[in-house]
Amino acid sequence: QVKLVESGGGWVQPGGSLKLSCLVSGRDLSDLAVGWFRQAPGKEREFVAAAARMYSITYYPNSVRARTSITRDDAASAFYLYMNVLKPEDTGTYYCAAAAAPDGRDYYTIAQQYPYWGQGTQVTVSA
Question: CA 49 to CA 58: how far, in whole Å?
Answer without folding.
Answer: 7
